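Two proteins follow. First one:
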Amino acid sequence: MTKQAAGMSAQTRWLILAIVAVLALGSVTVYAVQAFGRYQARTTGASAAQITDKLHDGNRIVFRNTAMGEGYGQIASVAIAEPQGPRELSQTACDRVDATTEYISCMRTQRGIPTTFETRILDAQANTIAEWPLPGVPSRTRISEGGLVATTAFVTGHSYAADSFSTETVIKSVQGEDFGNLEDYSIFIDGHELTAVDRNVWGVTFVSENKFYATVASADKTWMVEGNLEERRMNSVIQNAECPSVAPDHSKVAYKKRRAQSGLAHWDIAVLDLTTQREIILPLEQGFDDQLEWLDSQTLIFGMPRTGSAGDSDVYSILASTNSERKLFIKDAWSPSVVRTTG
């Protein structure tokens, strides 16, 4: 091959690579524009929900508003005593929400070119007091009364039902202390240290300002683990348990339990009594993929996408006892958390 031919060949390869890059960038841009257009369409017009200027009941459910129209995607609150009643909206849009009496953790997508992701912490008056970037798509968040914030983001993949995904779960405080990536903690399964490179951690729930539960996965298996921030260590509690949520009295933990079946992933609800180690399972015909929240010591609430209607979702309740069935709790809602300011 002559030098001229070799040069022409190299030039041709670079030209092809440049064309592919431009086309790829164009595809990403078109997708981003279309996604932003769909989001804008949902947020225009009068809200499908009844909106109030101020809630009078301090005990409330804080969630992501998914009612079509103005306020779609924003943080919303309803009185616990009237979950289907008027909702108060903030001006902050979130993908996932968790709240306490003092703080709100908001995981959000910043749509644009490129699209970015962040965690924003707000005070009780919905003023931003801290924020930091996320490495990927928002998935789970929990915040403790003292201001510990756990976030899980998808680094690759967008669903726990996917064959391949990777998460990053970190814990920080609203005061700025960083407790690191939980994958870097020592993890013990049935007393043996888990050192596999494919391990993932997600779905934190706080028991105290030092103790927490979370999910660990490796080699197509999952475990609920008990974690200690000071020791930077996690120990397995039970297998096949995901996205734990501890009861208000700390006597029980509820979680997703994957049903053994072929085809699409299906999760039921399970509740473990921490004293007796008795596990009960609440089968769900449709299945679900959310982190449960305790409404009270006997009742769980959780979000479910509306079948056949992309972008729409509702919150359901179910008693944490055998033979229970889910009931619609809040229409047009997602990512619920319970805030109690009085007994």
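Second one, unrelated to the first:
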Amino acid sequence: MQLSIDLTGRNVLVTGNPTAARQAVRRYQAAGAVVHRRATPGSATVAELPEQLFLVAAVEDGQPGWNAFMDRCRKAGIPVATEPAAGPAGHVTLVGGGPGTGDLLTVAAVKALRDADVVFYDRLAPYQELPMLTSAELVDVGKKPGHHKVSQSDIEKLMVESALAGNNVVRLKGGDPYVFGRGGEEVAACVAAGVKVQVVSGVTSAISVPAAAGIPVTHREVSHMFTVVSGHAPLTEKEHHHLAGLGGTIVVLMGIGTLHQLATGLRRAGMRPDMPMAVVERGYRPGQRTTIADLGTIASAAAGCSNPAVLVIGEVVRVAEANRDHAGAAADLDRLAASLLGS
């Protein structure tokens, strides 16, 4: 459960065996409660409970006998809250955190964070909201272009060592772990070390960030395909020709650093200079901004843009512009109608 009441200094009894109850204990301690423990139901009576007990947090650990004890607590006027048991210790979950807002975390992602003992997180994940989602130890391993606070191999080593020490480890990444997130490498590292690992897919920024700017990556009779490209390194001439010949929509992730080479290469490969193009910066984050130009002018138009950004190349950009124009016209009509009615 997410604790939303003030428990500072209040006595809370957490029931359940130590393995099952470890995360509930940590959550209540993090909320400021004075936590008392009972690992087995036995023949406990209400009289044996701590004085001024505010709440009993009942962890579902599968032991028989707890129901009778909880009934006695309720009859004595002590509230009982049911808590889920912690999962088996010693595994890794790679979690896709989406484009950076907690609103787009999946239910499975929230559950994995709740059950974590340690979270290794990236800067593009919704890390600001982690204290509300988990009481786990939080470790920043985020990487910036040209500056890797913790190397990829060290991240994998930290994950594996923590899991082998008996922790439930969450590796929280922006977007989806398998879309330019090096998730495959991290899974391989866990498998090689004999650590159980699973992947929770996330909402990829390749689709969600254009959507945040009103740009559909596909649109009937406009584009029936889209290609997702990493913008970290310049493409080859062969790749430029391949992309230019595919048609549809091209989506480039983290492509500000290679934008000039991309636009030049696509034009040289035969893509027309007036192909519409958008740069969406900081999708779903404060300061989100969209710059729209065409392939021939985007390099100068986006001169002040910076990562994190998603580039969108294709006629779907015009669809977004048309929708915005219609929305603006409708708003103008609404304001005109309101003024006429008011008069």
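SUMMARY FIELD: The two ends are 53 Å apart (CA to CA). Residues 327-333 have pLDDT under 50 and may be disordered.
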